[in-house]
Sequence to fold (719 residues):
Amino acid sequence: MGDEEAMSASDEGNAAAAGYAPHPFVGGRTAALRALAAWRMRWPGAPRVVVLTGNPGSGRSRLVTGFLMMCDPGYRKQLPLDDLDPATVPPDLPAPAVPSPSGRTAAQVLWLIADHFGLSAVRSDDICPELAAREEPVTIVVPDVDRAGPVRAANEPARLVREVLKPLAATETVQLLADVPRELAAELAEALPPGQVQIIDLDAPEWADPEGLVLHATTALDPDAGAPELPFTTDPAVRRTLAEDLARRADGSRLTVQLAVQSLLMQPEGFDPADGALLPGSVGEALDLHARRLGADPQTLRLLLAPLAFAEGEGLPVQLWGALANAVAGRDMSQDLADGMLLAAPFIQPVEQAGEADDEAEDEAGADGGRTLLRLQHPGIAEEIRSGLPDVRDAQTKIAMALLEAVPQQNWSKADPYIRDHLAAHTLDAGLLPQLLTDPGLFAHADPVTMRAAIEAVPLEQLGAPARTYLRTAPLLTRSQAPAGMRAAFLETAFVEDGLAPYAEALHTLDFALPWRTLWSVPLAGVRAVTTGSLPQEGGEGATAETAPGADGAGAGGEGPAPASGEAAPRPVAAFVVPEGTPGARTVPGPDGDSSEGGGSTLLLHDLLRPGYVDADPAQVQLPSEEAKAAAPFGFSRGADYLRVWDRAGQEVVAALLSDAPLTGADLSPDGVLVVATARGVTARQILAAAPAVTPTVPAQRTGPADSDASDGLEGDHS
Fold:
């Protein structure tokens, strides 16, 4: 069964001669189905890895789908398996894992596999080793690799092959079938020794299926299958002859046959089945012949379809089509669009999109919460349209500029969701993305998966500081799946952490109800606990603010309240427990007065409300009393890498923080300043939620650090 010569195209005729029915969905491909069944059965000599490839439109997706129908224990019961060639039917085994790459990154596909098999890996590098350690082999089918990635220009299919498929193929316990573009097939196969891998190229002579293509065309032309009754569809002999002519002219391309049939059935006037010049030999000819039969200029059809050829995601919103067609053509295409629906119809697929989950899209959705997107019938059509343009980058630039102009008052909250989420992809393809990456509002509103993929495709040296901050924060944004307002809050803090306070402040001027304002952030390693308190300022003794040597503070300009009278009010501070030897830190003796190594705590003081370390004796820090904590409007609870702030009166969460690094300390002052430490440093945030009304109290103060083995007495309230 592993001999390719035994799986030649002649198998189609042999199967028919033996009385076997074709696969009801695939309609042929006996040789390829036999090879896949042998792979699934793990016959002796069968390859462990099969790489399926071919030209765009060769029918790879259809073949894989039809094969998976027979691999699914439930679906195979609906198929007439007894009528099929037994050598094409895989055994009744548990369904293989089928992680879909469509629109996903390589990392997302890898974690889909990990989730499917219930792996315990916490790092992507651990997934393949864990699969290799399994006693039983696993079967994985990865279809449509050419559709991988949320951003077309980011070349995610190549990354998927190199970072996911090649490691999987090298794992001895993995039985892999992958449908990949031809330019990547050899790269995937060459990493394996002979005998372990087989390339099935559907356009190669040994795998060609001319009879199956004729059957495909015959069925599409048959009124019993839904075709209209026409002179060349109702007569079986004429229908068969036309199908043979279409298949011969298409030279193995199922997409060309499909487009030709759709064109003929939609507009049969003027078609003579005996005229071979009216039958296309390629996707491009299918486009041009269709336009000419309708009396239109083929270039007009291509210009109408050009915006769809560049569309990202699920498709282009119908209301944006006209503006983008005008931009690409450089003229008003509104009349062409109004008159050209029949012209474009055979090549377009409408997609009804469900209503958006966020409130931002409500104005763009229809009354039922959904809207119509348009996309081309097949990526091969898009490839043909783009290849026919004189300057692809110029066309993409015009599209990007038209999308940008369609943002009302440059307010991203009012922009069409397609523009928010995919403008970065269009500007990437146009070579303009770095210039776009200066708007914090766009950072917050855009889908973080697509934005991250687009930015990662730009060389790091071409990115400005705001884009680098976004890239650093992107894993947190994608992991949290937070809405735009929460993304804005995470970015606001990240900008302060990176010394970009104006960008943080800009987010406060937009329409977000941010849960906090980041007051300051210091890069400081080794902090293992934090607390908030205050310093007495009698005559200002010991309360000089300064920057500790080797550490810069960054803040968004928060200011504390002014004292109500001439008497100096206590100065709010944050105290960090830091490693001994940290510049600016002082050692506070332990309970027995011992300040030797291990006998006390090394503390560093920082102003609570603004950037700047405080040069003062930590022993003078007054911690809030238990009464003050109980009277505070907010409380908080935390886990390893998350924290929630809630109002005590209503027990409602008013702020949620997720960290990309484990939390090493946290405290919340009675006035609502949240201080959080991670391995990277310490950040202070003023909680902005309206505090519930409470009875004012003047809590007593207690002086000096408390004794606690876990946190040196300086860990905050977790109630």
About this structure: The longest strand covers residues 516-523. Residues 534 and 572 are 4 Å apart (CA to CA). The chain has four domains: 4-207, 210-282, 299-514, 517-550+570-588+599-703.
